[in-house]
Design brief:
Layout (H helix, E strand, L loop, with lengths): L10 H16 L7 H9 L20 E3 L3 E3 L2 H10 L7 E5 L5 H9 L2 E6 L2 H13 L5 E5 L12 E6 L8 H5 L1 E12 L4 E8 L5 E9 L13
Parallel strand pairs: 3-4, 3-6, 4-5, 6-7
Antiparallel strand pairs: 1-2, 7-8, 8-9
Helix pairs in contact: 1-2, 2-4
The structure holds S-adenosylmethionine.
Length: 225
């Protein structure tokens, strides 16, 4: 038994916690996409945080990870993924992979996931966790994700998990025709989740989804460090 009271035999406890997370935090708040609900019931969120935080892993708020970052609240992750309408054949870009938890959920929903993380230590840790859990369709690169990942573009969907002062033009450029971009836009204290869709003629439509609060996107097309 570890100091936090959990041991290897705790898996059924976490399965039950995931089930109630899906029912009480997601379904009850309007998340209805069956694939998103199933993926979030399957992915072991506690594996992406320190053991000391296992008790917090399925609670209704963000959880601290190293480098003073967080893994986002489960509801906001589900809301972003549902809005992006990820299809099984999609290639997806995730900006700000942090712990790798959302990356794992995306890997369950899409054909291929390219994730960009600013901190090498977080990228390394996320990579190790994803390999250990058997996710094979993920590439994590270290760098400034506000510039996207042009070497892997175009993407059917782009999910930005950090707050941008405006929609980064590089990301719009790397969106495929028919592609969806979900990005929190605002100042450093509050933002609105924006959904952009690129049409056949290259035009864009934008929908404002809901208020949210993310850590800042630090980079050339984000906030200054
Ligand atoms: N969805 C992630 C998870 O499940 O753990 C949480 C992401 S956390 C809210 C935001 C992440 O964006 C942090 O890890 C931060 O280091 C990263 N970030 C901030 N600016 C970035 C940038 N320009 N490029 C790539 N990552 C960035």
């Amino acid at each position: 038994m570890s100091s936090n009271g959990f041991n290897e035999g705790s898996q059924p406890v976490f399965r039950e916690q995931r089930r109630s997370m899906v029912e009480q935090q997601l379904r009850s708040r309007g998340i209805h996409d069956h694939r998103v609900l199933t993926a979030m019931e399957e992915v072991p969120r506690h594996e992406f945080v320190n053991r000391e935080q296992w008790e917090q892993a399925y609670s209704d708020h963000p959880v601290s990870i190293p480098e003073q970052q967080t893994t986002s609240q489960p509801y906001i992750i589900a809301s972003m993924l549902q809005s992006a309408e990820i299809q099984p054949g999609d290639r997806v870009l995730e900006v700000g992979s942090g712990s790798g938890y959302q990356t794992a959920v995306l890997a369950a929903l899409a054909r291929e996931v390219i994730a960009v993380e600013r901190y090498p230590s977080l990228a390394e840790q996320a990579r190790a966790t994803l390999v250990r859990l058997g996710y094979e369709n993920v590439t994590i690169v270290t760098g400034d994700g506000s510039l996207g990942a042009p070497q892997f573009a175009p993407f059917d969907a782009i999910i930005v998990s950090a707050a941008a002062p405006r929609v980064p033009p590089a990301l719009v450029q790397q969106l495929a025709i028919g592609g969806r971009l979900v990005v929190p836009v605002g100042d450093s204290s509050q933002q609105v989740l924006e959904l952009l869709r690129k049409h056949r003629d290259g035009s864009l439509t934008t929908h404002s989804l809901e208020g949210c609060r993310f850590v800042p996107l630090i980079g050339e097309q984000g906030f200054a460090a």
